Amino acid sequence: MDALYEIIWGAFSPNVILYTTFGVFLGITVGAIPGLSGDMAIALLLPIVFKLSPAVSIGMLMGIYKGSMFGGSISAISFGVPGTPAAIATVEDGYPAKKKGFPRRAMLTALYSSVSGDFISTLFLIFLAVPMGRAALQFGPAEYFALYVFALMMISLLVTGEMKKGIAAAGVGLLLGCIGMDPLIGSTRLTFGISGLRGGIPMVPLLVGVFALPELMMQFSNEWKKARENKQDDGLGKGQDISYDAKNDEMTFATYRSTFKATLLGSLVGTFIGALPGAGSSLAALMSYGLARKMSKTPELFGTGILEGVAAPEAGNSATAGSSLIPLFAFGIPGSATAALIGAALVMQGINPGPMMIEENSTIIYTLFVIILYATLINCLLSYLLIPLYAKISMIKPRFLVPIVFALALLGTYASRNSMMDVWIALGSGLIGVWLRKNEYPLAPLVLGFVVGPGAEKSLRQALLMGRGDWSILFSTPIAVGFYVLCAVSLSMIWFSVKDKIVAEE
Amino acid sequence: MKKFNSDLVSSLVLCIFSIGAFIYTLTGKWSAGAGRGGARLFPQLAAAVIFCSALMVLLGALKRKEQKQMRFPEVGLMSAFLFFGMGALCVFLSLNVGVVVGNLIYLVLAFLLLSPAPLKEFRFIFITAGLSGAGFWILFIFFANMLLPNPILF
Questions:
Q1: Residue A432 touches partner B, C-beta closer than 8 Å
Q2: ipTM, interface predicted TM-score of the complex
Q3: Residues contacting A240, CB < 8 A, separation 6+
Q4: CA of A174: which chain B residue's CA is closest?
Q5: What are B76-131's pLDDT values in tens digits?
Q6: CB A465 to CB B88 under 8 A?
Q7: pLDDT digits (tens, 9 = 90+) for A284-332
Q8: Nearest to B50 by CA among B21, B9, B7
Q9: Contacts of residue A455, Cβ cutoff 8 Å, sequence gap at least 6
Q10: Which residue of A lies nearest to B119 if distances are taken between CA atoms?
Q11: With an 8 Å Cβ cutoff, is B7 touching chain A?
Q12: SS3 of A13, please?
């Protein structure tokens, strides 16, 4: 009874609530700005963790984590630019929904599904930390490689446009991921003598360059063309687009209910993927999107602004927030970069993540569980209040927004590591992104290839080392074979459905 | 302007790129390490994936009778030069002049470039650019502690 009282008192003290709310607000803000991320905000605030109590500091950091997960979708929906890597898939349908005149509905869908996914995965964290950690550790190198191949194949097959272009884009991403240090022996490769590339291409500049800059450039070119043709627009950029009808953009329960299935699917996929160390929220979002599209009654509408296409990836990426802490809490292995930062904060507070953590620090850990749960509610309320502000921002004329967002993206890219090399990488990736988009190569497989490439290579080479160079080790376990069978089945299903269409057209 | 098949050109570019990448993995001076293929294996696999898929796009483009044009025709060399040039200018001014003043200059120039009636909107442009510059300072200098290499102003 005393312990319960201590947990409740610790979790609901005014200081904890205040710092958690501040963390959520900061997370939403940094998540919404392309080039900034929740990871950066967490890393910047780590030094002040020493001065705060465990509940206050972890509450604030978790607030940033949760806020940034939803915050990334604000920029994705409003500008077609993912605010965080995890919001990549949200752009596919979120931005078209905004262009159709439903920004508020899209953002509320993203919010509710994000909060739902986050809440579900937090429940998993609380009740299944130890058993799920054990299940995740059953995956060896061969199984991980099979998972990566499956993920790459699925995203290449399921993007809009030609399948072979998707695979080519994934290959480019894999090759870009090879630049820098080899994951096993640390030899630098493919750097062309540029010392700044020894650590590899950093993710933030590449994502900003490949996703943000091409879209900004399309809008810039469009606006410049209109300016040269001297086409006047109304309102001197003062705000509301006359074609936007707020009454038509209200969120109803029926609309929310139509996204239940996608939200649940994303939540479960995200929870599972988040529990796998290194898999990450980007992978969860993309896989959730792909699966939701596959299982939808209207898959042909994905990519046109359908709300299921917003709900699934948002639930998927937010669901990794709780489950990525499962291997951290259970085994001391962080499930993501953010989980690693949270782990660092715990160590700074004298709490060592691992199997004995819950036993040795039960009161504080259960206090953290309660804080993590209500931080989700704070995220929901605060984001709901801030959405009208961001929905209005999305209606500002592009010729004012584009230069501002461009500056934010570049300065944010510079700020993440105070490196000019990152800015050049972003601009270079932007050129590549523009070329790919003009030639109708999808960008999501490129990004996924880049994200999972190092992990896939490590798994492949570890498996081959274990098998002494014998490739059959990749097919030696049922889990690995299962993933390859799923690849083959998906490929043949999609091939036959495409072939039928071609025959019908001929 | 001479029309060309965009799929044909893009797939050829990717094929040549992947062959170049593959050759580089064979001749590049880095230690391969232990295990089958070592550090060269994965880049070679990636290059092979790009080549095979680009080849399929190329064959599809050759089979297709009608010419496929690139999307977004309004995005051309001039707009690309202006856009990326403005980006470089933004960063240069921010780092050397200062976040507030540098971005004020950059945004005024960018808004004027994109405005159909620059003189009419000049006051609004100037105020918006100034407020945005101040916002950037709060975000990047005050909150994010971005380090700048000795800017002239603020």
A1: no
A2: 0.88
A3: A392, A395
A4: B46
A5: 888 888 999 999 999 888 888 888 888 889 999 999 888 888 888 888 888 888 88
A6: no
A7: 888 899 889 888 888 888 888 899 999 999 999 999 888 888 777 776 6
A8: B21
A9: A144, A148, A183, A278, A279
A10: A236
A11: yes
A12: coil
Tokens of A26: 């900061």
- Helical spans, DSSP H, in A159-198: 163-177
> Rounded to an integer, what distance in angstroms lies between the CA atom of residue A31 and that of residue A83?
5
**CB atoms closer than 10 angstroms to residue A114:** 36
Contacts of B57 in chain A (CB under 8 A): 162, 164-165, 168
Which member of A217, A407, A427 has the closest CB to residue B106? A407
- Cross-chain Cβ contact A407/B83 below 8 Å: no
Interface test with chain B among A438, A450, A451, A465, by most B beta carbons within 10 Å: A438
Task: Give the mutation candidate from B29, B52, B83 for the A interface (greatest A CB count, under 10 A).
Answer: B83
> Is the CB of residue B145 less than 8 Å away from at least one CB of chain A?
yes
Question: CA-to-CA distance for A289 and A501, rounded, in angstroms?
Answer: 23
What 3-state class would DSSP assign to A180?
strand
Question: Residue B28 — left, alpha, or beta (φ > 0 → left; ψ -120 to 50 → alpha)?
Answer: beta
Q: If you write DSSP's letter for every residue of A354-399 in order, what string do you get?
A: STTHHHHTHHHHHHHHHHHHHHHHHHHHHHHHHHHHHHHHTTS-HH
